[in-house]
């Protein structure tokens, strides 16, 4: 019986080294490309869609609120943003080793890849099992000032949350907010790029004001 092993070509050490360098360089290029794409998407400017009741926070609110959310979340922890897409990009930039997920109805934000989770408050329990009880901090801004919208969003919040809850909504929802999520008004008050006719408050079920830099929020 003939032995064909001697006919199998072998690569020299130099060729193997060159091949390994080629694969290493290719992997570096792929990683750089993925990073460039991610950086590009985090700089995208999205316009408000008023038909979806979208009203973006102003720059100061985005900066202060995103930093406070990071401060409230332990290293290696996770943050869920529900129906507050204007908060995502700033939070993602400073998240470090934390995970940030955006639960949002508007599919324009699907450009954020795995960080985007399609969400409809009308189906509050349609949440992937992997997200149940997975988030150290849950921040929500229900799109409509109604008992129904807050109640349904609250159902989702409770499914996602490990404990800390932050709610941004109108002052008129004060009683419903306490009833649905057992949250209290914070000293910090969010503001929007375009002034809303309704007074807007921030609520939490923990001392969220202490999470702002220097705890500068004063009564």
From TrEMBL:
This is Protein-lysine N-methyltransferase TBRA_LOCUS5846. Pfam families: N6-adenineMlase. It is an enzyme of class 2 (transferase). S-adenosyl-L-methionine-dependent protein-lysine N-methyltransferase that methylates elongation factor 1-alpha. GO terms for cellular component: cytoplasm. PROSITE patterns: N6_MTASE. InterPro entries: DNA_methylase_N6_adenine_CS, Efm5/EEF1AKMT1, Mlase_EEF1AKMT1/ZCCHC4. It comes from the Eukaryota. It is found in: Cytoplasm.
